[in-house]
Amino acid sequence: MAVAYEQRSAHIASDLNHRQAAGKAVEAYQELGGALVGYLRANLRCDEDAHDLAQEVYLRIVRHPDLSEIQSLKAYVFTIAKNLLRDQSRRSATKLSACSVCADDVILVAAGSDPLQHFEADECLRRIESILAGLRPACRDAYLLNRTYGLSYADIADLMHISVSMVEKHIGATLRALRADCQVH
Fold it and tell me: pTM for the full model?
């Protein structure tokens, strides 16, 4: 009988903690909802992603094991948001690195080779130039700074006065456009 009482007591305590966590999440949403989404939107430049990460912040508040440890709800919310942005940036960098091609892996056409190869290489370069010309200047500049001049994302971010995450997005957009053209041809 004592075991059943202890299990029931533990269940009630767990339910109480869950309700308190939900209350903290609602409090965070009411107090900081607009500021949090604004902060995330400024760092992501995408409204949907900002709202998705804000939802994740509230979920982490609800899942926190001991809310009595939180001294400042605002500091806790924005620390979670900052960490989520950092995690997303790392995931993006990993995805982008898988899409890039090392310059040493590109085979250049040698002088005196088949004229058809020259024609195909010229045609390929014209398509690439056309795609790059059709992109937003920021995407084109970030891509060329990285691929042509070998600058790191951090150096490009400093040079263009944008975040590293934004550099990743610009280069990612360029790579998607180039890949889309390759799939068409």
Answer: 0.44
